[in-house]
Amino acid sequence: MLQVLEQAATRLHKNYPYFHPLYAGQMLKPPHPVARAAYALATWLNPNNHALDGGRASSQMEIEAVRELATMFGWTTHLGHLTSGGTFANLEALWVAGQIAPGKTILASSQAHYTHHRISGVLQLSFDAVATDTRGRMSLEALEARLQQDDVGTVVVTLGTTALGAVDPLPQILSLRQRYGFRIHVDAAYGGYFTLASNLGAEAEAAYAELPQVDSIVIDPHKHGLQPYGCGCVLFQDPSVGRFYKHDSPYTYFTSDELHLGEITLECSRSGASAVALWATQRLLPLQRGGEFATMLEACRSAALELYRRLHASPIFLVSVEPQLDIVNWAVAGDTVEESSARVRAVFNAAARKDLHLALVKLPREFFPPKTWPQFNLSAENTPYVTCLRSVLMKPEHLAWLDDIWERIQYAGEESFQP
Question: What is the residue range of 331's domain?
Answer without folding.
Answer: 293-416
